[in-house]
Amino acid sequence: MKKPIVLINFKAYENSFGKKAVEMAKVIEGVSKDYSVDVIISVPATEIYRIAQEVSIPVYAEHVDAVDLGARTGAITVEMIKEAGAKGSLLNHSERRIRFDEIDDAVKKLRREGLESVVCVDRYTMVAPVGMIGPDAVLIEPPELIGTGISVSRAKPEVITKGVEEIRKTPGVELIAGAGISTGEDVYTAIKLGASGIGVASAVMKAKEPRKVVEDFVKSALRAIEEKGR
């Protein structure tokens, strides 16, 4: 995954599906192209095909089931999201928890199909255990801060710094910070604390001017990466 990692989760808002979702994806793609940053968007399963046809940025599923093809009514399989155009999947979000063995199976299935995986955890003590499974990234999000506008980088910076210490035990796996991130300064701080990038949802999906928000996030992420490299 190319740094800085910026992942925008569409969730299930009024603008997360249909024409509004495509419009949002195109806005995000515009920022991605302007700054040469691969902004990842995770979208509802029903929208993967539609959006993947319209934009060139990586499209993820918001969730995938760790099951084989067959008599699985209602399942969303790895094969399905790949055929629809997804480049990977978000897993174990606090709003869509799955068992540890299911995380393991899903990551393996995604890897076999050449797709990426980002696994969410709610505490730093889970970073290394999940990292050992071998996802592309672990997204740490204290659930009590999600959607609050109070960022993890401001309210609980130790969650990021301790998560960074834990991710070092699993080389090749990136750490993404999320929960409450709402300003460019939040993004800058998270990356300066050691995260490889950030995950956001409502700050973009509920914004009156989403392009300005995404641009602020991307510019701040690039600034932090540049300063860390000096």
UniProtKB/TrEMBL annotation:
GO terms for cellular component: cytosol. Gene3D superfamilies: Aldolase class I. The keyword Protein biosynthesis does not apply. The active site is at residues 93, 141. Substrate binds at residues 9-11, 146, 180, 201-202. GO terms for biological process: gluconeogenesis; glyceraldehyde-3-phosphate biosynthetic process; glycerol catabolic process; glycolytic process. The keyword Membrane does not apply. Pathway: Carbohydrate degradation; glycolysis; D-glyceraldehyde 3-phosphate from glycerone phosphate: step 1/1; Carbohydrate biosynthesis; gluconeogenesis. Its EC number is 5.3.1.1. It catalyses: D-glyceraldehyde 3-phosphate = dihydroxyacetone phosphate. GO terms for molecular function: triose-phosphate isomerase activity. CDD domains: TIM (cd00311). It is found in: Cytoplasm. Its main location: cytoplasm. Keywords: Cytoplasm, Gluconeogenesis, Glycolysis, Isomerase. Belongs to the triosephosphate isomerase family. Homotetramer; dimer of dimers. Involved in the gluconeogenesis. Catalyzes stereospecifically the conversion of dihydroxyacetone phosphate (DHAP) to D-glyceraldehyde-3-phosphate (G3P). This is Triosephosphate isomerase. It comes from Candidatus Aramenus sulfurataquae. The lineage of its organism: Archaea, Thermoproteota, Thermoprotei, Sulfolobales, Sulfolobaceae.
